[in-house]
């Protein structure tokens, strides 16, 4: 049977791409990029064949969805921040068989999920940014799961996460990594002052709650974190309502998780939001 080899909560801030380009912000996200490259290295060492990304930039208004086309290729410009991510070319292979397996298993668990393999759906930048740095050589196949869930319950997303792990371990013949691609607090800087907040949090309250969350992770207080997740997501504008995080912790065991966290890229602020790269032991 298959193996879930790596699980992580990761940033995908568009300033990572901006950081590559000549100009005043060149190099500003080197630490985040290095964190992604390190996670990619670990995936290679673990023999991962497919990375499943819980993508908080894929908005859905009904059900759960899996983009598992056989191949993804194109040139991407963000409609949200077209001055940050523009003309980003990409090409990755998908894993239709795994995508359909995930959807079947989640649906059987009571969470209606559809897999899309014969599709013109493209990838969103919650998937494209990490793949740019983790998967430069196209070593890994890519499956993307909708995680900007506008009318969904976090408990259903946790159920989906549990189903993802069960599908991998009980029915998949291979090795998989899962990535919750989204921020911690996510209140963007107000229009007109965003430039001065490129490396700052929007409000000290948000930063203090984020730091408390990271502390809970480091102390292994998973019961407190999972209990506070719904209110945290609401009061701190969690990206994608933090459905990516609910999926991740569903896969890890929710409040019964007994693992530890490795902070690969320490907590940092970006355009008012709180970011991190953190790997959770499986």
Describe this structure in words.
With 282 residues, this protein is an alpha/beta fold. 36% of the residues lie in helices and 26% in strands. It has 8 helices and 10 strands. The strands form 2 sheets. The protein has an 8-stranded mixed sheet with strand order 6-3-7-2-8-1-10-9, sandwiched between helices. It has a two-stranded antiparallel sheet with strand order 4-5. β9 and β10 form a beta hairpin. The longest helix has 18 residues, at 154-171. The two termini are 16 Å apart. 51% of the residues are buried.
Radius of gyration over alpha carbons?
A: 17 Å
Count the DSSP helices. 8
Strand order of the largest sheet: 6-3-7-2-8-1-10-9
Low confidence ranges: none
SSE topology string = EHHEEEEHEHEHEHHHEE
User: Which percent range describes the beta-strand content?
Assistant: 25-35%
The overall pLDDT average reads 97
Give the distance, in angstroms, between the N- and C-terminal Cα atoms.
16 Å
Q: What structural class results from the helix and strand content? A: alpha/beta
């Amino acid at each position: 049977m298959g193996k879930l080899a790596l699980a992580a909560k990761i940033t995908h801030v568009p300033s990572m791409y901006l950081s590559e380009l000549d100009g005043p912000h060149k190099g500003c996200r080197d630490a985040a990029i290095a964190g992604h490259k390190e996670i990619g290295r670990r995936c290679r060492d673990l023999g991962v064949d497919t990375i499943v990304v819980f993508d908080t930039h894929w908005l859905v208004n009904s059900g759960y969805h899996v983009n598992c086309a056989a191949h993804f290729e194109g040139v991407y410009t963000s409609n949200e921040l077209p001055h940050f991510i523009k003309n980003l070319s990409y090409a990755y292979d998908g894993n239709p068989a795994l995508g359909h397996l995930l959807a079947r298993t989640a649906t059987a668990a009571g969470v209606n999920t559809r897999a899309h393999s014969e599709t013109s759906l493209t990838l969103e930048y919650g998937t494209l940014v990490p793949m740019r740095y983790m998967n430069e050589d196209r070593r890994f196949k890519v499956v993307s799961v909708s995680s900007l869930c506008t009318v969904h319950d976090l408990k259903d997303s946790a159920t989906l996460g549990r189903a993802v792990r069960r599908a991998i371990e009980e029915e998949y013949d291979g090795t998989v990594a899962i990535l919750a691609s989204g921020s911690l607090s996510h209140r963007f800087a107000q229009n007109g002052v965003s430039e001065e907040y490129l490396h700052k949090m929007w409000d000290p309250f948000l930063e203090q709650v984020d730091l408390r969350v990271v502390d809970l992770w480091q102390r292994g207080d998973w019961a407190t974190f999972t209990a506070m997740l719904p209110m945290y997501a609401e009061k701190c504008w969690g990206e994608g309502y933090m459905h990516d995080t609910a999926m991740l912790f569903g896969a890890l065991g929710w409040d019964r998780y007994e693992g530890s966290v490795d902070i690969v890229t320490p907590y940092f602020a970006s355009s008012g939001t709180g970011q991190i790269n953190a790997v959770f032991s499986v």
